[in-house]
From TrEMBL:
PROSITE patterns: ADH_SHORT. Pfam families: adh_short (PF00106). It comes from Cryobacterium psychrophilum. Belongs to the short-chain dehydrogenases/reductases (SDR) family. Gene3D superfamilies: NAD(P)-binding Rossmann-like Domain (3.40.50.720). This is SDR family NAD(P)-dependent oxidoreductase. Keywords: Oxidoreductase. The lineage of its organism: Bacteria, Bacillati, Actinomycetota, Actinomycetes, Micrococcales.
Amino acid sequence: MSRTVAGARVLITGAARGMGRLYAERAVAEGARAVILWDNDATALATAASLLAERAEKGTLISPFVVDIADLGAIAQAAQRVRTEVGDPDIVISNAGIVRGKFFWEHDNGDDIRPTMKVNALAPMYIAREFLPHMMTNGAREARIVNIASAAGTLSNPRMSVYAASKAALIGWSDSLRLELEQQGFGQVKVTTVCPSYVSTGMFDGARGPLLTPLMTPEYVVERVWRAMLAGKPMLMMPWTVALARALRGTLPLPVWDKVASGFGVYRSMNDWVGRESLAPDAVELD
């Protein structure tokens, strides 16, 4: 792919605010053919679409769709509308996610566990399944799938059990998809799996980064992800301590690793989590 997304159709989930909106702004700035915004917050989505339209150059279409990706059936319906009204995207950035900062036994099956797994793990699969066939058959044009996972999917952490499970599932599927496409001759479709530590979007307000792992700014993360996407990089872990922790976890005996993680503050990082100030501590968080 070229150094920009000029001329491409870009679909972003969780696009009304946070990093999703930053990805959309980047696509607009680079002259994308269409920027397709998916979000479940109709008001925030309308505001974001209006602001993006003001910045867009002539020829860039801003297409907002109110979609609750926790409703897996709604994904197919929204995808059909995208194909009909805009055209199949060349780039899909599955950015939307939710988190619960609770001990596992405090989770409710219907309000916590099920939506977390749907939004974080299943929805990216359903979305990719809708648009992947076009990407695979359009061999003359490169395509990208970007799945925003988390460092939590690579390491266990108290008060993040369901979130960690959802992101571990996302990582496993995303990188397996990458291998399948490469091995079956569809190398024009590149899959990038992103595993960041805590990002200061509001979604993790109150969380404390472990030693040597400060909270990253959304702007920094978006810049790194964007470059990795264009380059077709398979895996992006940030900051560097995420990859180090993953390596140590895989080599050290578990009791030793537990002591190391505790000493570095990994296991205490969610103790003071509150999420967005406008929401209750156990409310849905979308970015």
